Amino acid sequence: MSDKLLTEIDDRGIATVTLNRPELHNAFDDELIRELGETFDRLSQNPSIRALVLAANGKSFSAGGDLNWMKRMADYSEEENRRDAATLAAMLHKLDTFPAPTIARIQGAAFGGGVGLVSCCDIAVASERAGFCLSEVKIGLLPATISPYVINAIGTRQARRYFVTAERFSAERAREIGLVSEVCAEDELDSTVQNLTDAIACNGPRAVAMAKQLAMSMSNRVINEELQGQTSALIAAVRVSPEGQEGLGAFLEKRAPKWQQ
């Protein structure tokens, strides 16, 4: 791995992946995209990871595509562009489906693909000075690869506006449309993120991973007899699992469960 990306895991099992190209506003190129994908792969296979925080050094969270990378792409054939875009799409999918909860820590501007990274995270915390822009149409391009994740985050109605206007919008507006979960003062960003990771770390590790999958798999499902049967079977299986038995036992015995000790 290069120094474009930093990874740290604390004693609680909280992994922090930090974009480290502050001089380029953490814009990403093919190398950084590859490293992000490999990092998400590696961390997803580590059973001790309780949550992943995606952060960035410097003034900006991510300006999207790196200028030099975009210059190279301009000379690619359509097939070469397809392969290049597929690598980005695969990286975003790995972040979106990461097994543990993911939190975006947004201290500054997130443009283009940077909005895509935010949209792939389960929770996004932004400082008051953060700004957002889906800027692709300004240069005659489209937010195609990131679009499924952005639309999941902000909905079709808002996407139909911001995809075509390329307006810059504030952190508070990002919260209003669902892109951001919380907005705080810049000096409260770390404590806000830590409060979230502390809350996650207090909960059953397997239950947390399953709860994330539950939220994703139940979205837009028709509530019918089949779905009722699936959810009933799921809770029954969890109740008799080792973690479920430990959690219920701890609650009834008024003690801390093993994962909090």
Largest sheet: 6 strands, mixed
Strand order of the largest sheet: 1-2-3-4-6-9
Broad structural category:
alpha/beta
Shape: globular
Order of helices and strands: EEHEHHEEHEEHEHEHHHH
Head-to-tail CA distance between termini: 34 Å
Quickly count the helices.
10
- How many beta strands in the DSSP annotation? 9
* Range of strand content: 5-15%
Weakly predicted, low-confidence segments? none
Radius of gyration: 20 Å
Mean pLDDT: 94
Helix content: 40-55%
Describe the structure.
The protein has 261 residues and is of the alpha/beta class. 49% of the residues lie in helices and 15% in strands. The chain is built from ten helices and nine strands. It has helices spanning 30-44, 67-74, 78-96, 113-120, 147-165, 171-176, 189-201, 205-217, 225-239, 242-252; strands spanning 5-9, 14-19, 51-56, 102-106, 110-111, 123-127, 131-133, 168-170, 182-184. A six-stranded mixed sheet has the order 1-2-3-4-6-9, with helices on both faces. Helix 1 (30-44) links the parallel strand 2 and strand 3. Helix 3 (78-96) packs parallel to helix 4 (113-120) and helix 4 packs across helix 5. The longest helix has 19 residues, at 78-96. The two termini are 34 Å apart. The relative contact order is 0.10. The model has no long low-confidence stretch (mean pLDDT 94).
